[in-house]
Amino acid sequence: MAQGRVSVGILGASGYTGGELVRLLAAHPGTEVAFLGARDSVGKTMAESHPHLAGAGGLASAVLEPIEDVAGRAEVVFSALPHGASAALAPGLVERGALVIDLAGDFRLAASAYPEWYGFDHPAPEWLDKAVYGLPELFGEQVAGARLVANPGCYATAAILGLAPLVAAGLVDAGSIRVDGKTGTSGAGRGAMDPTTYSATEDSVRPYRVPRHQHTPEMERGIELATGVPTSVLFVPHLVPAVRGVLTTSYASAAAGATTGSLTECLAGAYSGRPFVRVLAPGAMADTKRVRGTNVVELQAVADPRTGTAVVVAAVDNLVKGAAGQAIQNMNVAPGLDETVALPTLGMYP
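Above: the chain sequence. Below: its structure as tokens.
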């Protein structure tokens, strides 16, 4: 402990999610960022890697170190590394007493799913059952006291929070779910790729990884973990000309008699008192702009009696509630602290 504060390490601090972790943790009164790890940016200061953090006090001049040097340096380790990297590092860190929160997909699925959905054999399959799926609104009791947390993906966060209460209540058919997703370019990470350049994305809306996006089995598993109901999801993601934001529009066969009112009441009841879930009144429409920079998810539910379909829309900031903010929420929940500390609920607009 440093002056009564928890020491924190961030792996992948040079990336978008790593930078967002630093931005949010700079305002956290209970933590001290003790280690910033990177690969290609080792030796740079945080402000050199992220110029927008030049005003972050001592964190701005902190030097990025090799990620392997984190061992023994932090009580909480956030791993914002590419998929596949955390699986080899996290077990050793947990065994040394750290709470590890993995923001990649390395602990979200069963071992058998990794070759198909992530393209690698999991190097530590015995640790998958030890990891808690870190969606605090649904699994907060398991997160409390956890030592290894699998932070959910951005699309999965939005879709699962919108659908799980309705599946649990029997208001929608879990075998008929179709999810349309939209995301901005920051979801692809900081590495330069032609498909996410301004020239490629300006005035463009296009699908990608259909039907093999890795959040598909995560949505299915997350809903089933929350409800006990086997679930089938078809997911089609799209890249849109924006930087931040994820919007999912989910469709499922509605139960007989389901109305917009009953769907909305179900969501409102499930998330009553939850500080980061905003259930919109019937007729209101979710908007990624309103949640920009916040740890909030907006949910909207509509029943279409003509087709017998329930429509659930969810909006999140993919870098906050969809990544860094939710990871900090998990860090707050794990030792039983106030989950809202250092997490904004007021959006940046326009």
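The radius of gyration is 19 Å.
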